[in-house]
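We keep the chain:
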Amino acid sequence: MLKMIFSRLVFMVAAGLLLLTFLFALFHLIPGDTARLIAGDSAPEELVASIRSAYGLDQPVGAQYVAYMQKVLIGDFGMSNFSRQPVLSVVGPRLLNTIALAGWAMLFAVMMSLIFGCISAVRWNSPLDKSISIVSLLGICTPIFVTGVVAIYLFGVYLRWLPIGGMTTWRHYLMPALTLGFAQAAGFTRMVRTCMIESLGREFIVTARAKGVPEFLIVIRHALPNALLPIITFFGLGLGGMLGGAAVTESIFNWPGLGRLMVDSILTRDLPLTQGCIFVFAMMFVIINLIVDLLYRWADPRLADAQP
């Protein structure tokens, strides 16, 4: 286990260095003058020249790359052009808000998918199974922004049950978390249903039923644990997609999260902040993959003896 964790940490460091190199190259391949993009189209040439000198953009590309890597390796992503604050001090609080939103949405999606996926598999090909499948397909096919707008109109404008923006109280969490979680729950439910149908058809399940084991215990103790590996993989991919998709939900519900910050930084041409947001998002994906690998070992102890 420790060897696997160490190898994954080495992979995280290598992935981080490659990502930083990619970001540096990406922002230098953008057509146009970076200093002019920061200063604005109508800025005088003297201001553009001062920005070029302040950011080291008048240096050779190799020198710029070395200076860039030296700064980011000690956690210095520069200053935000818009707020004039260090990038990490701006990204940090927004990241926590996005994790809070994605966490509650993921909890909702996992609970709903396990419950309705198992029910659908146990009642396979019944009217209840077909009803759950139809709702799941609707959830998969409906874009998040449509679900969000409908939720705002129904619960925020028409019924006036919930606030339509902000994150002051727990009531502000409900609509964004349920909107974000509903789309993921629909896909998760289909995956859980498929894995559980396959697991319920195995010989050890037939033997357990022949011995008179109650159906509830067969599902919880025998079928579900044996179906967990592909489900964990799908949950991990879903959490990564949820963090990326949170940008849309945050924009709809005026949620001060990292996704909305990245969109705003692109619109305001805040290149240092955009780089910081992209880097943090990518590293979150890498950390999620590490957590999924650890969950594999928990779900199937035989993998603990396997090579990393």
About this structure: DSSP finds 13 helices and no strands in the chain.
